[in-house]
Design a protein that fits this description.
Blueprint lengths: L1 H26 L27 H12 L3 H16 L7 E3 L5 E3 L3 H5 L6 H20 L3 E5 L4 H4 L15 H12 L3 E2 L1 H7 L14 H14 L11 E7 L2 H6 L7 E6 L6 E2 L10 E5 L6 E5 L8 H7 L2 E5 L8 H5 L3 E5 L7 H4 L8 E2 L8 E3 L3 E3 L9 E7 L10 E3 L5 E3 L1 E2 L3 E7 L8 E4 L2
Parallel strand pairs: 3-4, 3-11, 9-10, 9-11
Antiparallel strand pairs: 1-2, 5-6, 7-8, 8-10, 12-17, 13-20, 14-15, 15-19, 16-17, 16-20, 18-19
Helix pairs in contact: 5-7
Length: 439
């Protein structure tokens, strides 16, 4: 009897082990989880007719990422870890003591392990100042807005081992913006003053009621009036959190979201697929002025409130902010919304606008530095201008970067650590230009 039970157990064990592979062969690869790319098709012969030398490696990836019932098994395992061991099996998602979920990648930037340096902070603030200067030269109002991370706003719900260091990158950037006169919407102050939690428990973003408060705060910074946050709102369990979906890819539990009961009256003037479209354009007869807004995923439920306030609006997810669109759109207001954990995008993706020309007096005390200048191809982004990039040696923390051409014209570049970017008129003889900094 015992031998028979052992044989049955062994047979069932091997059958269970075969199910994922056999299911993969019969049904094809499992769907990708929320934050994953779909499993690539397995090819022994590549499209160009040559042998795929990486076939065995590709086969391993194909099986490990596409086996049958993969997402169901991931969900079951993650739920076991969460409910029994009170921890997350997914390194990208952290679980708080009361079930709140947090994005793991944001921890280093808040704990002090990966904060921006003083030079990086200054360069971010200077880049924003230069963007604001150009925006205002085009007759528009500039507003920068940073949606705070959940760790910053609701540390009481975070895991006990996560600590938010004093002097966060956002705090230091805010101080630097104040010093340089950058106009920004203080979303941190607005959300901490609210008497309710306005971010989802299982998502990394604010809910739609929080988006209404953000819209009011941004519009106020732009000199406009709105009162979306006062509602009224209709509450329904309709939202599947992004962090919840990452942790439990087949989970179906929904969170409460809020619908602004007055209803939006704007219309789409561009082809609309989803709130994640790279470009969304709207019009509203009851709105006033023109808006050009650059946004990230926090803009998903923010843009409807903004679209409601403007006669015409364009929302872009481009990482390099195309400020040269201001004239084309006849924008009255330019808003840049950028999440706290991605502030370094201000350094990684320089904005697109003509470099401002300066009086030579700005060079007083500056020194000429060694720099290698390179130019983008003639088909660069902004017509009539050439995009220059250059390297830098050490500079002072608060040093601007100036490009001096052969004819004596002085331009201020977008600064970075060890590099800079500038858009100069294409007729500029940039090959012989000199670069000046302060040390």
């Amino acid at each position: 009897m015992k031998r028979a039970l052992c044989i049955v157990f062994i047979v069932l064990f091997f059958v269970a082990c075969l199910v994922p592979v056999v299911g993969l062969a019969v049904n094809g690869p499992s769907e990708a989880a929320a934050n994953e790319a779909p499993v690539a098709k397995l090819r022994l012969i590549k499209l160009d007719g040559t042998m795929n030398k990486s076939f065995l490696s590709d086969l391993q990836t194909y099986i490990s990422n596409g086996f049958y019932l993969r997402l169901n098994l991931i969900t079951a395992w993650d739920k076991l870890c969460a409910n029994v061991f009170h921890t997350s099996a997914n390194e990208d998602v952290l679980i708080g003591p009361d079930g709140w979920l947090f994005y793991g990648a944001a921890v280093d930037g808040l704990s002090g392990a990966n904060q921006l340096t003083d030079r990086e902070i200054w360069c971010c603030a200077r880049s924003l100042y230069l963007m604001q200067e150009y925006t205002e030269s085009q007759g528009a109002v500039f507003v920068f807005a940073v949606p705070c991370g959940k760790y910053t706003l609701y540390p009481e719900h975070a895991p006990s081992y996560v600590t938010v260091a004093d002097g966060s990158s956002l705090t230091r950037l805010t101080e630097a913006m104040d010093e340089q006169g950058v106009s920004y919407a203080d979303l941190y102050a607005a959300f901490t003053a609210a008497d309710e939690e306005l971010y989802w428990k299982w998502d990394s973003h604010w809910n739609s009621k929080g988006a209404a408060l953000a819209a009011d705060t941004i519009l106020d910074a732009a000199g406009m009036e709105s009162d979306y946050f006062s509602g009224p709102f209709t509450a329904e369990e309709t939202h599947l959190g992004d962090l919840y979906e990452m942790l439990y890819p087949t989970g179906t539990e929904l969170e409460t979201d809020y619908t602004w009961s007055q209803g939006f009256t704007f219309t789409y003037t561009s082809s609309f697929g989803s709130y994640d479209d790279v470009t969304i354009q709207t019009a509203n007869e009851s709105g006033t002025g023109s808006l050009l807004m650059f946004r990230d995923s926090s803009g998903r439920n923010l843009y409807p409130y903004m679209a409601q306030s403007f006669a015409v609006a364009m929302f872009s997810r481009l990482s390099s902010y195309r400020l040269d669109y201001i004239a084309e759109r006849q924008a009255d207001v330019v808003v840049i919304e950028l999440a706290e954990r991605t502030l370094d995008y201000l350094l990684e993706y320089p904005a697109v606008y003509p470099a401002p020309e300066r009086d030579e007096s700005v060079l007083t005390g500056a020194i000429k530095t060694e720099s290698t200048l390179t130019a983008a191809e003639a088909s660069a982004t902004m017509e009539g201008y050439v995009q220059l990039a250059g390297t830098l040696s050490d500079t002072a923390v608060d040093s601007p970067v100036y490009i001096v051409t052969a004819d004596g014209a002085v331009y201020e570049a977008i600064p970075n650590v060890g590099s800079f970017t500038a858009w100069l008129p294409e007729e500029t003889e940039w090959e012989t230009a000199a670069v000046y900094v302060f040390q």
